[in-house]
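Posting for a labmate who doesn't have an account.
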Amino acid sequence: MTDHTEQIVIVGAGPAGLRAAERLRELGFGGRLMIIGSEPDMPYHRPALSRQLIAGTATPPDVRLAAPGDVDAVWRFNTTAVHLQPRRRVVHLPGAEEVRYDGLVIATGVEPRRLPSAPYDHPCVFVVRTLADAMALRHGLAASEGPVAVIGGGFLGCEIASTVRELGREAVIVGQAPTLLGDALGPEVGRRLTSLHSDHGVRLALGTSIRRWLPDRRSLGIQLVDGNLLDVSCAVIAVGTVPSVSWLRGAGLPIADGLTCGPTCHVVGTDSVVAAGDVAQWPNLRFGNTPQRVEHWLNAVEMGCAAAESLMAGPRAARPFAPVPRFSSEQHGVRIQVAGMPALGTDTVELSPPESGDRSVTGFVRDGRLVGVVCMNSPAAMLSWTAEIAEQNPVSRIERENSRAPGQTRHRPAGGGAHRRRTDAVAGG
């Protein structure tokens, strides 16, 4: 794709969409570039929402990743794509507007999962997904006193509870699992993190769920199925996410649990559409042929870059996107770093025994290979073990050939140039 009359459209103005746009220009795409985003803001550093922005140590300008003039593109803010016609190569926008494309990058991310019967219209109930959400919670905390309930024991919920405690407020986490983050990081690490929150004064209501909400004008009552009653000033609902694919219904694309891609980020069944970030599931050939989603900020950045390269190269010449996923979280002053795919592990091994000060390294093993690692306050170990995961899980030529997505044609679009991308693991947080 080098013709100046061509147009590439990016649906999704988050970090994945931004990095895709930047990479397209770096690769020499000289055509028209349009970025369509549902929010009113430029892309921003989403991990800051649950910590610095809520705590008041950062402002919205501090977390923005770019200004409109930084990328040679047409930005369409406050605009939500409503439908896609891949055969016509048309994205439909509100007001019956049709935007034609020669290449399309889908990076629409995820939406907060809705909790049945929750009073989302109550002024004391919050979600945290966007910049506006985080600012609303920040103002809500400043305008209230009393305990804060966090519904959900995942990473977002745990980070928000940690921030609430740093602000000197009482916090209670309500979760159905018996430990915090046990489903994501295994029971042993989950127990350590549960103790970490308990030791820092977070009240835990685990292994239970909400029976009913008892909203008052300025406060909330929450009755749990175990009979306990919580009286709180604010509630933050963080019970997971769902991929933002509703606008793709009827487009003929595979959208079960995210938009399904082949190893090169090309959406299955298409040559001119790629996907990146939280909305995409793809087979990371370091860890097998099963498509999976990785909902972390760094993966969105790297996959945006890879999707742009694959779009320029075309399905036949593109290289698989096969990173060692990694991300970090900070809770109560403890830095938690994760590399690889711990959820794939069938066994765990302590690579560094837990020490005082919450320092530990836990490995996750499958078929004798290290497939993931969780480091607590161990950044140097994170670097070396990330490299070890990459070495033990190479991307072989045979795997690449055998796992080419079904229905994905092999011809190369006119003007497509091969752009090799780096698939070696890059250690870091």
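Reply:
Got it, the structure tokens are right above this. The chain has a mean pLDDT of 90.
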